[in-house]
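Inverse folding, one chain.
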């Protein structure tokens, strides 16, 4: 059923405290027309009298904010699932439910903005410059550019745990996302928006100041708040966007984005959050820092043991990971009252790249407090050059390691050579000289392993650049 609803949800949306939209391709029903499964997640306040949002309207705007004449449309979507409920055993804490609204749509070639607009934010938001914040709607969007790519799966947020800040305490949550295509993700704060235009299908920035509490890691999506002595308790808003890039024709281009709008509380709470104290990878004799990069290969199984502690004596800890079910092959198992085990059977077909997973520890205090860690992984190809059959790498590079210049022998004069990094990204295009010799002088690349490949894709040489180069 296709329709424009305008402000039909105005009476209910004031209870929405967070929202995000994701999409994934599904089998086409019309030849030549891509079809996508689109999921709206609404985080609905469970305070007494709150509406439960039985349906929501998703808008699909093609090539801009024109509601008609470009193939744009909207769909009224009923609730399909209550994914999770977060409750509190005492008053003053945030209790909410995570609700899914799912639909399949045809998206012809174009630049598509998928949007949701809910009317009337909660009033009295501290960082909205107009204190009558209920006059602003809640707008969330996702973007897909099918003019650049024929098919794309959007990043999926790996946590449904909404943050709050307690006075005097450092906080750690996550806006991290998983991308099944292995695309490069960049995280950034954006200004929260309200719907605008005739059918409220696009967003306009709300007059507001950035979150005074949280910091966002641009590479991993880790969301942290340093301890503060401020006591300005109340409600705040923030929004984050995950920009998705793919290398096309030798250059990185943005093919999509997803965003999350969040309303969070600053509380004068005395219950202190638990925290992770150690991470042990694969039975290693010593623990490593929890935020240290974990290196794995596609097809490998990696087992992580995480220890936690609570500064408040007598509290019971529990562990959870929303990444289980979103990251293929990931599982979580409790090992005791203060230890959990995260196991990742990395799919053999997973594209090389950087990935994240989230794991949280929560106490049973009043209100309950949590720490959510963002674990970062570097996944390399299942078969590295070092494990290929002898003789497949045709030439030894000199010097090894190198600093400013390296040379090796190609198979034929004038042969086209491609240099790639550990993630398979092209960093240089070269051509062999008349005697078959190849000389590479990288100007501004970090230390690490690079591979020279011929036109047929076969490896020719391993190129190890040493640290402390001058560039």
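Residues assigned per position:
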């Amino acid at each position: 059923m296709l329709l424009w609803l305008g402000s039909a949800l105005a009476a209910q949306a004031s209870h929405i405290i967070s929202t995000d939209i994701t999409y994934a391709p599904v089998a086409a029903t019309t030849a030549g027309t891509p079809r996508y499964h689109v999921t709206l997640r609404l985080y609905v306040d469970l305070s007494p009298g709150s509406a439960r949002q039985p349906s929501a309207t998703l808008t699909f705007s093609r090539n801009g904010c024109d509601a008609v004449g470009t193939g744009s449309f909207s769909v009224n979507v009923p609730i399909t699932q209550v994914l999770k409920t977060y409750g509190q055993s005492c008053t003053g804490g945030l209790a909410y439910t995570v609700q899914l609204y799912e639909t399949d749509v045809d998206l012809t070639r174009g630049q598509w903005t998928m949007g949701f607009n809910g009317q009337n934010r909660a009033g009295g938001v501290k960082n909205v410059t107009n204190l009558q914040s209920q006059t602003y709607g809640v707008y969330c969007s996702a973007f897909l550019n099918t003019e650049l790519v024929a098919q794309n799966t959007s990043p999926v947020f790996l946590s449904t745990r909404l943050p709050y800040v307690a006075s005097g305490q450092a906080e750690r949550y996550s806006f991290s996302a998983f991308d099944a295509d292995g695309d490069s993700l960049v995280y950034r704060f954006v200004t929260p928006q309200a719907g605008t235009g005739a059918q409220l299908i696009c967003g306009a920035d709300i007059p507001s100041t950035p979150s005074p509490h949280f910091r966002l890691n641009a590479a991993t999506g880790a969301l942290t708040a340093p301890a503060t002595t401020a006591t300005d308790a109340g409600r705040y808003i923030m929004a984050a966007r995950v920009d998705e890039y793919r290398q096309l024709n030798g250059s990185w281009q943005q093919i999509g984005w997803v965003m999350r709008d969040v309303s969070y509380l600053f509380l004068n709470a005395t219950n202190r959050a638990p925290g992770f104290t150690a991470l042990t990878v694969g039975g290693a004799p010593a623990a490593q820092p929890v935020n240290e990069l974990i290196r794995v290969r596609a097809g490998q199984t990696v087992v992580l043991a995480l220890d936690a502690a609570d500064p408040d004596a007598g509290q019971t800890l529990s562990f959870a990971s929303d990444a289980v079910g979103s990251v293929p092959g990931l599982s979580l198992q409790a090992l005791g009252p203060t230890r959990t085990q995260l196991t990742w059977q990395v799919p053999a077909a997973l594209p090389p790249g950087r990935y994240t997973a989230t794991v949280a520890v929560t106490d049973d205090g009043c209100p309950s407090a949590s720490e959510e860690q963002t674990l970062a992984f570097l996944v390399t190809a299942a078969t590295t050059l070092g494990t290929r059959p002898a003789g497949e790498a045709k030439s030894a590079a000199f010097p090894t390691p190198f600093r400013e210049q390296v040379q090796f022998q190609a198979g034929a004069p004038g042969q086209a050579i491609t240099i790639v990094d550990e993630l398979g990204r092209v960093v240089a295009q070269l051509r062999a000289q008349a005697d078959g010799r190849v000389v590479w002088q990288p100007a501004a690349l970090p230390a690490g392993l690079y591979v020279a490949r011929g036109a047929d894709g076969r490896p020719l040489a391993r190129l190890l650049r040493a640290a402390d180069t001058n560039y």
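The radius of gyration is 25 Å. The chain has no helices and 33 strands.
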